[in-house]
Amino acid sequence: MAKYRSIHVRFWTDGEIEGLSAHAKLLMAYLITNPYRNEAALYSLTRKRMANDLNLSIEQIDGALKETIDHKRIMYDEATSIVWVKNAIRHQALNENCRKSILTDIARCPCQPIANGLVSYYQSLGFVWVLNPLATHLTGYRVQGTGNRVQER
């Protein structure tokens, strides 16, 4: 787990973020930077923890969650308290160890619909290395460009 996370200044001028309420913006910044987040941004976080950490009521958290879900910025499973912050991987530098951690995070996720959504989403963006979340190696693929995307050999 990273000891620090940063938010690029473009976060605040992203058209989808600009359109969110103040509580939803706060929630998004928190979900990207909180100490519970793993490399895949796919982790367990209760609404009560969010409310406590952000000094918001459960009702305010529920409203912010609904808004960010409706804007397709996150997925949240109430039964397992699993959250996935969409696009978090897309905006981080990915080395081999980071990719292995992400695959492990996906494989350990107790909420298959969210894990499957993450895999499908990143595959559609060309992140081929998430094809098999249980894989421990990127056999048959080579890193291309900045290391964020791979292509078949």
Task: Write structural notes for this entry.
The protein has helices at 10-13, 15-18, 22-33, 47-54, 58-70, 96-108, 112-124; strands at 42-44, 74-77, 82-85, 141-144, 149-152. Helix content is 44%, strand content 12%. It starts with 9 loop residues before the first helix and ends with a strand. The strands form 2 sheets. The protein has a 3-stranded antiparallel β-sheet, with helices on both faces. Strands 4-5 form a two-stranded antiparallel ribbon. The protein is an alpha+beta fold. The chain has 7 helices and 5 strands. α3 (22-33) crosses α5 and α4 (47-54) packs across α5 (58-70).
SSE layout and pairing:
Layout: H1 10-13, H2 15-18, H3 22-33, E1 42-44, H4 47-54, H5 58-70, E2 74-77, E3 82-85, H6 96-108, H7 112-124, E4 141-144, E5 149-152
Antiparallel strand pairs: 1-3, 2-3, 4-5
Broad shape = globular
Mean pLDDT: 81
- The Rg value, from CA coordinates, equals 16 Å
Largest sheet: 3 strands, antiparallel
Uncertain segments are 134-153
**Count of DSSP-assigned helices:** 7
Coarse structural class: alpha+beta
Strand order of the largest sheet: 1-3-2
Order of helices and strands: HHHEHHEEHHEE
Distance between the termini: 31 Å
Strands, count:
5
Q: What percentage of the residues does DSSP assign to strands (E)?
A: 5-15%
Helix content: 40-55%
